[in-house]
Amino acid sequence: MPIPPLPLQVVTNSSVVCSGREGPDSGHPRVFLAVPYGGEVLCPYCSRRFTRDLSRGSSSQAAAEA
């Protein structure tokens, strides 16, 4: 039986930590991922997707990262 895809995780920070689907005992190492402004990043281990909520970021932060 295939594993269902994970929903898109909406974050407000420029980086996230992913530990996998089942927590720390899943064999998935803890990875830190950079989430580009206005973009999306995919965890290379569990395929969890993260995107940034552009409506809650500051305009100065967006200008600094552009």
Distance between the termini: 42 Å
Sheet/helix structural class: mainly beta
* Overall morphology: globular
Elements, N to C (H/E): EEEEEH
Output the CATH class name.
Mainly Beta
Q: What number is the mean pLDDT?
A: 79
Q: Please report the total strand number as a whole number.
A: 5
Structural notes for this entry:
With 66 residues, this protein is mainly beta. It has a single domain, classed as HSP40/DNAj peptide-binding domain, CATH 2.60.260. Helix content is 11%, strand content 27%. It has 1 helix and 5 strands, in the order E-E-E-E-E-H. The chain has one helix spanning 59-65, and strands at 9-11, 15-18, 31-34, 40-42, 49-52. The strands form 2 sheets. Strands 1-5-4 form a 3-stranded mixed β-sheet, with no helix packed on it. A hairpin with a 6-residue loop joins strand 4 and strand 5 (49-52). It is globular, with a radius of gyration of 13 Å. Mean pLDDT is 79; it is low at 62-66.
